[in-house]
Each structure stands twice: as C-alpha cells, then as structure tokens.
Specification:
Mean pLDDT: 88
Largest sheet: 10 strands, mixed
Number of strands: 30
Strand order of the largest sheet: 6-13-7-8-12-9-11-10-14-15
Shape: globular
Structural class: alpha/beta
Bound molecules: zinc ion
Length: about 800
Amino acid sequence: MSGRALNWVEGGFTMPSNESTDRFGVGSALEPTPPVAPGGGGGWVRRGIELCVSGQVQGVGFRPFVYRIAMRLGLKGAVWNDASGVVIELFGDPPGLDEFLRCLSEECPPLARIEMIRRRAILGPSAPASFEIAESQHEGRPDRVAVDSATCVECLRELHDPTDRRFGHALVNCTNCGPRYTIVNDVPYDRPLTTMAGFAMCERCRSEYRDPRDRRFHAQPTCCPSCGPVLDFVGAGGGSSGDAIESASEAFVRGQIVAIKGLGGYHLAVDATNEAAVARLRAKKRRDHKPLALMVDSIETARSLVELSPEAERLLTSPAAPIVLATRRCEDGIACGVAPGMHRLGVMLPHTPIQHLLSRRGHRVLVMTSANLSDEPLISDDGDARTRLATIADAILTHDRPIARAVDDSIVLDAPLGAHLLRRARGFVPAPIRLPAPADRPGLCLGGELKSAVAISDGDHAVLSQHLGDLNHTLAFERFRSTIEDLLRLFRVAPAWIARDAHPGYLSHRYADTLGRRWGVPIVDVQHHHAHMAAALAEHGRTDAVVGLICDGVGYGSDGTSWGGEVLVGDLVSFRRVGRMRPLALPGGDAAAKQTGRCALSWLMDSLGPDAITTPIARRVIPVDAERDAIAAMLARQLNCPPSSGLGRLFDAAAALLGVCEFNHFEAMSGVRLEAIASGGRSIDGRHVGQSDSDSGPACVRERDGLMELDHRPLCRRLVRGLERGEPIELLARLFHEAVASLLATSAIRAARESSLSSVVLSGGVFCNAWLASLVHQELTRAGLEVLMHRRVPANDGGIALGQAAVAACVQRQGR
Ligand SMILES: [Zn+2]
Ligand SMILES: [Zn+2]
Ligand SMILES: [Zn+2]
C-alpha cells in the first residue's frame, strides 16, 4: 500500500487531532478583531469569522458539538446547516477563536469527518448577544449525506437499563448513531425531510432535542416508546401478539424463519445452529450453495467462530458494522448448511437496537441474510416484505419507520494484505471519494452490469452508490434507474456528461443512450479493464502511469473481442494493452461458465493435444461419453467455442481437473473452493509460499501478435502429471495458485521494465482471491515494484463506476 493512510469510514480523511488546522485552510493564529466604527460613524460593527465546514458534518451531532464549544468559550454567533455542510459565524476575542479552532479539530464527534474548512472575515452589526443553532439554509449544493451507523454505546446502555425511559426501545438512536442515508428523503438533514417526518416528538423528546446539554440535541430521528415508531411481530396466524421481541425469540427456538427489518432492508433470520432450519431457509429462498451471513451476539463469539485480524475486529465493531469474511475455525458448532465447503464465514455484530434485543435473548448466532428471492434485489418496502416474503418467512418483525432506500450490508474480506471491501453499501455509502483529477463539470457514471453500482461526480468527488446487483434482473434494473434519480436529486447534480462501459450489450450502456438523448449531454465510453485500473488509481489518489494487472471475468475489449486477464500500461487518460492470458476456448459459451468440466476439457486439449480426450482425467471431468465426444468435436472445429482470456475460466478448469468443483452454483464458486483447498483452511502466513513445488517450470510468458501471452499450458501439463502421480490435491491447488501468480507477476515485471514504470495496480474480480493476490503482491514487491490494491472500493465490478468517473473527468476536460 502506498500514499497517505486511508480512512475507512469515508472518502476524505479524518481531521487528525495532532495537526494544525492550517492544513485545512484555516489560519491557526487569527488577527485581532477589535470593534471598529464604520465609515459613516454610525453604530459599532464587530469583526468576526465565518467558517464553512464541509465533510461528513450533517446528521452526526456537529451543530450541537459546535454549540457546546462556543458556549464553553463564551463565543457569540450562530451555527447552521446549509446544503454544502455546516456554517459557523463566530464573534469573540482572538484567543477564544483560536481555542475554538483547536477544539473543532481535537474534539470532533465520532461520526464527523471534517474535510475542509473555508474561512473568511465578516463584519456584524454589533456582536450577537448569544450563540445559537439557527434554521437550516436550503440553498446550495449538498456534498454530504451521512452514512448509517450502528447503535452507539450510550444508546445501548439505555436500551438495557430497566430504569431508563428508553429501556427496550427498539428504535433508540442519538446524534452519534442510528439511521441516516436510509431515512433521508432530501437534504439538508432535518427531520421533516426524513422518514421520521410523520412522527411528532413527545414533550420529553422535544425538550431533549432542544437542550444543548443533551446528547440528543438536534438528533433528527430521536424518539422514545411513547412517540416513536412501533415494533410489530406478525406470526404465521397473521395477527400481532404480545412482546414482539419475545415472540421473535420463541420463533427462532421453534426453528422458524423470521423476516426482520434492518436499517437498509429486511433480513431473513434463523437459528444458525439448527441444521433443519437452515436447510429450510435455503430451500425456501431457492439458494442452494451460496454461503449465508451470520450475526453473532458479541466480538467474543465472533472470535470463537473465525480468525480475526486486529483490523477486522476494528471494522466489525466500527459504526459501519459490515459483514466480515474471515477464516473459520474448525469446531464452530454452526450448521453445515450455512457455508458448505467454505473456509471462511461471514460474520457481523448487531448494529440495530432490534438486533441487540434479539441477541440479548440468548441467540448467540443467527443466520442473517438479505431478504430477497433468489438473486433479486433486497426488499426494503414494508408492503413488499409482507407480500413477497410471505412464501419464505414464518413471521415478520417490523416497525413503521419507512426505509427511504434499500441498502444491503457491506462485506469486507479479512485478507493477509489487509481488509478490503467486496461489497460497498451500508455504513460506507454515500460517503464521497475524492477524485485524483477533478472534472470541471458534474457527471454520471453507469458502472458495469453484474455487481452494478453507479456513481455521480460533482467535479471534485465521486459518490459511488450502494451495490445494486445484476442488472439483468428486472427489479435490479428498476433499482438502478431509481438510484440514479435518487442520487442526482440528493446531491443536486445535473450531469454534463455520462460515462459508461464500452460493452454495447450492457443494459447500462444502452440506458446511457436514453439519458444522453434526454439530457443532450455527451457520452464517454470507458473500456472495462481501464475502468478497473482507474478505480484503483482513484482510490489511491494517483494520476501517474502504472502497469495494470487486471484479472477479471469478461470485459468488452478495445478491439471488440472479449477480454479477461489483461496486462495494461497507462494512466487515467489512456492505456495500451501489452499482455493477456492465453485465451481458452469455451465450448458452449455460457454453459462452460457453469459446467467446469467443459473448461477442463478445453484446457486439456489445448495443452496436451487432441488425444487428451481419451485420458482417464478427461473421462472424469466429463463422465458421459456422448457429451464428451460432442464437446471434443466442438473444440476440434472451433464451433460455438468463444475464446476467453478470463482467469475465472482457468480457475474453473483447474477446479474440475482437481475434482473440487464440478458446477458453479454461484459466481466464482470454483475459485473460492480452490482457494480454500490451497490455503488448507488456514490463512496465509508465508510459509507455504514457494515451498510446494520446484518443478512447475519457469513462468511461461511469450510474445504473440505483438502482445505478451501468459501461457498456462505448461501448468496444465504439470497438474495432469501430479494427478497421475497421486500428489495431494491441496498441493496441486497451491501449485496452481503459485504458477498463475508467477505468470501474472512475471508479465507485470516485464511490462514495468519495458515502460520504465515502478508501480503495478491489481484490480478485477479475481483479486478478491486473497491467496492469489498475496502471491502476486509478494513477487512484485520482491522485484522492487510498488503495488496498489483496492481497500475501500471493491476490486470487482462494484468499483467500475468510480474508475469511469476518474477517466471521464480527465477525458471530458481534455475534450473541451
Ligand atoms: Zn446513540
Ligand atoms: Zn418521545
Ligand atoms: Zn470487471
């Protein structure tokens, strides 16, 4: 990793407590501000300062915080939200103003992130008599909507304290925690513009809200049992009954499936130790193999289930509270059906009061998976939940605070080289990410197609949307369209350009045409792999030229063919392709992406020649004679065998050869299985690396058609030899990873030398494979190269829109 330390919580940076405020454009020593008489000799005016604070400063208790400091220091003036952040007008003695600036930096509330403070001197008509929180100003362009945040420690204390008036209150929240992005209908962040608008505060809540000394001073979603939303449990019989939490708890004990309303949508939950309940959930959800996430009652329970790095623990317990995927321990007591064949488990901690109340009832580990049917988008609407989840859930635990927009749980992978996001949603969205080179006009980026996420750019920043899913689902496409409208409205952006993937078949590509015509704005096509590379550059704030090792599934290439595993050289503006994986013919096209034996047969015939069809290994990977002969004939005549340089299919081929995955029930399943076997169920500690084999031969990178070709045929022959010799599958799986990593690293090192570059970007969905990423990283750093990897933005297509924003910002500026 390089560059400045990245702050996980948002795109900017936390205001460091030990630095002078100069860095933020604020002078630490203020000029004296004596009262002066205006020219006409009329009434006294007083000099003061105005501070415009931008960053994550709305909905995080910032105004009350400012108020308290001002009161403490005896300063006069006012603070208010405007659409760009918070404005502070201050009048007082210079030492007091200096002290104020110091406190602003050092005592910042936990969820606040100051990115910039603009300061100017002002003259006031005599100093105000007091300091007040003024009405919000609605003009201007907002640059922040706060992210949702897990229940804070103070609220938890109240939740569990029988003497507190909010004891057991399932929607307890305060200025430091609770829903934000998922309740905001518009900005600025004020209660009438949230989904709490319909709930009138009771007298006690109102007095807390108005009391500057109270920790709920100006807490927009604040409420209590007598004025807030009401919890409701609807069981199989249809009616609501008794204590909702108690009823849900009893349902888990009976092995029932309960739909539970969360911050950004509903979850489906069952007791994770009840094998029958988990199997029933899978059957009803029509989800055969994909692992299910778990919610554990405490960090101790999480530690007992998975091996957690300190960074992963920090993230688990952070306000973002994502699902963390980590290596599972052997005896975890979890039902086999939760994550069959997986060496990792996805765990999260309770992050809403409802979840905390359920955990308190003794439910140590619950399956907590997104409520949706099969691969459809997450359900967040109460009506949808009652009707569409009726076929899955036995009961529903809900309340009447509406969810403004669906936001899935975020997923973080705890990897040896550091935790990184695989899915960016709740707790991270819509925090903006600063673009390395700003655009001079705002724009919209439509992302890819699978794992879709869109982005808007205001020029300086990009706001990446929450994960939207596979656009080929009608409902996901609907969500894609509504999210675009939503973000443009919330951030007051009128796009002057649109960036999209160059793939003419992508729905997002075609939708760009529709929008481009509607708005009369130009469209920038961004090549898929270039967007991946740019996303990593953007994340690191870089604009320089690098080598891009982009290992992906399929992306539309500049030459109109399908690209996959590619070596690029370039920067944000342009790139050239200098290498690629040797293409593998995919018999039956899409069928080969599911049935891994097809890829294996293709790899065998390419590596060993046509006679490979008669070997015992070929007979094992495609057991039915007629089918095997048909596939061989297709390969021999290159009929319906589109070539793919995607690394995913090579993983499929190897997984079939080694007999670890015959069918991809979900995307990248074979890769996950292979990685699990290669790592032997344990995290990488460096000891295995390079020790498994001395005989896989040198990495075979050759010249072909003016490109480096990463030739994997020697690797295939080596695996076949190993199988024939009866070598352990674990060893061969490891050898496969090492050989692929070596091919990739060798080509990147060569590209770097030839182009006199010293940095290599790793991006593309294949780099979600932590084992492979570690091996490549190790070889590249050993060669003295800097390696840039994703952290806060997914390496998969969830990060594409950010890359498009970074590229388009440069391209549209040059085009003017
Ligand atoms: Zn709180
Ligand atoms: Zn109340
Ligand atoms: Zn991709």
